[in-house]
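For the sake of clarity, the format in which proteins appear in this thesis is described at this point. Each number in the token line that follows is a code from a learned vocabulary of backbone shapes. One such record is shown here in full, so that the layout can be seen directly:
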Amino acid sequence: MVKHEGGLDSGRVRQLWHLLEPLHAVLYYAPEVFEEAAALGYGTAERWPTYFPYRAAPLGAVGAEQVTSAFYSFSPRMVAEHIGPAWKIASPEALLRARVRGMDRAYRAIFGDRVDSPELAEAAALARRAAEAADTAGRPLAAANAALDWPQAPHLQFWHAATVLREHRGDGHIAALQVAGLDPVESLVSFAAIGAASVERFESRGWNPEEWTAARDRLAARGLVDAADGTATEAGRELRRTVEEHTDRLAAAPWRALTLEEVDRLVELLGEFWVAVLSSGLLPSETTLGIGKV
């Protein structure tokens, strides 16, 4: 296990991500958040027409090229399809207000009376300290979210902190992929090769079969996947382990704003809310993040 400065090991850093990610990701699946987007004029028959503008809104009314760069693993065609019309439907400012309203409603629906509990307020205070300690240099999505005003309600402060921290980790993950020499489609092919999720799940990122095959061939030429069936070689598995460990190291710094006892307390506090989100049935059972498999 990689040990970090301040005594926080990579297992704890990854556990915090595993706990926070579902609590953040409600934004992209809750009916209440879809309803807020629909009121602005966005289509909600599938999640992508709202996913792209909701996630990109903190960046401002940027074009598809900037969003493709920041999101990394999505096909440029898919990004352009959804970002092209996004700011014509509503402004980023309107979307930011809508996502806060939607998350307020969603958390109230999921947590019930516990949304105003002292435990969630305590978790919010701890997570906010970590989020405010995050160095966002070179991390566009983390920086854009960190620059937003903090909501007033503790449960929304918690969601905002979780969002800053997950985007901070995501920005660092992109850096780790680049150090490993994995371009956007190769990052997905190599992840599918270790069984992080099905190829079909990764295909939701918009790459066509020819692009997927070409990426697999490039990885095979590097000895990272088997040319015949696309499964990872030992070298490929080792490279992905290195990527995840590098990501953990890059994600660790904000948590040093808390003592180890406070980190333990946050983990304890998050348990019931994490269970409530998973039990809601809103989130898919399989995602491209590989949570629980890396």
